[in-house]
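Q: Convert this sequence to structure tokens.
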Amino acid sequence: MSDAHELADQRALVTGGTKGVGEATFAALKAAGARVLTTARTRPDNIPEADFIQADVTTAEGCKQIAQTAADRLGGVDILVHVVGGSSAPAGGFAALSESDWRREIDLNLFPAVRLDRLLVPGMIDQGSGVVIHVTSIQDRMPLPQSTTAYAAAKAALSTYSKALSKEVGPKGVRVIRVSPGWVETSAATALVGRLAAEAGTDEQAARQGLMDSLGGIPIGRPAKPDEVGNLITFLASGRAASIHGTEIVIDGGTLPVA
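A:
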């Protein structure tokens, strides 16, 4: 297990760290002793102002602001965790996706990582050490064609980009890892279950099971918890994972039918 001193000398930036997996990762890194900043358009009450950068990570200008603020406050970054992501595209399959739908999914799920890596990884290379963790999704291999085609494609692009980056910067002392969650029981996921139950006229347990069934089942019988993903990311960022590089760690309760 990690302790309060494991990452005591480390400076970390977590995108999307105000809710769900990002919030859990922010808390886990702090608990391990790291100095952590996170970012979003609006600061929630549970994130101290000193730990927060208000910016739009989906724009080039926002990423520049984030990188500059991280440099000003921390003097550099040792751990960079890209959690921000999600989907707001409509259901209905590929024909329902407009140009703007595709652009929005790519702007949220791919470009923030590309831009911030470009701004912050050179500093890691200069110091000869650093860890970059890209949160992808099992949907890059298991897309849901009626609802997440664009999201899944953007996450697949992020995964491919991440692998290429790992090959380039690994010999320079920078580790790059992908963490690929399945269904995680965030507040948004809980709200989705409630909405599905209301629409189907059933209870939340039945809606929850139906959602798991739509994924082909989850062998452990439940989705992952945000802090389980956050704890995994914190381990991967630590020295205990010093030989883990250029790979994808899946945390999905066994959802993917093959390794």
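The chain has two domains: 11-184+225-251, 188-223.
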